[in-house]
Amino acid sequence: xxxxxxxxxxxxxxxxxxxxxxxxxxxxxxxxxxxxxxxxxxxxxxxxxxxxxxxxxxxxxxxxxxxxxxxxxxxxxxxxxxxxxxxxxxxxxxxxxxxxxxxxxxxxxxxxxxxxxxxxxxxxxxxxxxxxxxxxxxxxxxxxxxxxxxxxxxxxxxxxxxxxxxxxxxxxxxxxxxxxxxxxxxxxxxxxxxxxxxxxxxxxxxxxxxxxxxxxxxxxxxxxxxxxxxxxxxxxxxxxxxxxxxxxxxxxxxxxxxxxxxxxxxxxxxxxxxxx
Amino acid sequence: xxxxxxxxxxxxxxxxxxxxxxxxxxxxxxxxxxxxxxxxxxxxxxxxxxxxxxxxxxxxxxxxxxxxxxxxxxxxxxxxxxxxxxxxxxxxxxxxxxxxxxxxxxxxxxxxxxxxxxxxxxxxxxxxxxxxxxxxxxxxxxxxxxxxxxxxxxxxxxxxxxxxxxxxxxxxxxxxxxxxxxxxxxxxxxxxxxxxxxxxxxxxxxxxxxxxxxxxxxxxxxxxxxxxxxxxxxxxxxxxxxxxxxxxxxxxxxxxxxxxxxxxxxxxxxxxxxxx
Lengths: 276, 276
Prior knowledge:
With 276 residues, chain A is of the alpha/beta class. Helices cover 25% and strands 27% of the residues of chain A.
């Protein structure tokens, strides 16, 4: 479940967690940018509505893609693990240049798609250049270490975040979504404090982190992207704390980035808009 | 945090989760086999007692290694994240042919070592051939997806297992330890049900899963190794279940293996002792 290997002479596709807030996202530059990356009017867009239980979830995004000039749009009817082995569905998935996963429940994505041929197709596709976006639950699912369940609040507490394996397109970041709106700094810090190797990305609604093939993030949308860098944590009381009790953490670094700002996951450096 | 890449012409070292039960392990063939793999009398054994808060934890294992004829034994004094950047400690770690991590609390290992130079050394070492064993907490820590916290019982329940990123020597398995002794089938099934891509390994006390460079497991010791194969799960109610409620799972495959039996993680096939 680590990222699939990128074939020689190819570039990994962009990985695009979006913070949710569907109404706002529909008219924002986020989906437009996704379509441009995926080939503009020639894009072959695939929508995976599995996280949601609303029949309309995929159609709403398809309508936006249509408005943006895309004609080749498929909403995949993936409800069960057997669907993930259906040759017709896999063919459409293999042909995509861009993928969008709707919001809903990230455990529905992981339990339905995890370990199936559809997961392999998505992982291999991204490794050879297919761009994969997800909003809300879809955003959480792109990660190797996915926040599956959690509680609100600013202070990290032991057990506040439950992790599960996600799709595993990247293991460099742990994503949390509806970030400012649902007060999730505590649970993102908790998730990182278990093992401070990854970088935390808290994505506000109508905001997206476009993670490039070079692992540099570009921010799009109207909200903020909160970067939580635990690499310089000197002390953490996580191991010696009871369930539900606050966790002491010394040395967490935080950045709040807005549209146009960038963050390099390799060097852990942030760049305000317009800087080199 | 996916496994480090094995350099050309080299073989990954063995990964050896042990199920705990220190008193029994001391006189069992498990540590003997670890020493043989690591070079016998020429082995350079390193002990990491970080998971434990008992001062004697490392010394007891060192005594066993000594009895087995090893003269080059280092107990590394890793208590803080700063220790994981100490050049003297890193030098000893880089020189090891075999590593043993004691039991205690796996979150102490993850919070102290995760993301540090010591973690990089262990991961790169294993990739180029260093054998890494861990008992109890040390066994949990070898995985990419580590069971950090959990409850006892046979029925899987949502939230029964909390995962955290581990050392990440392998992402093919999720290990649980003291398996039969602490009634942990439920929590291992829960951990796998979040995303059924990995294979579950429940390791009884005084029992070890020797995971070879070819990802074939050999069982050693007096207890059982429970293999939980979720790859054929057709249905799971995990995504639609409330916290603490039982999870319905259809299609889990189980194997109970004993000393001498083998399991191939690539083909998901089990081989009784003596078979080809």
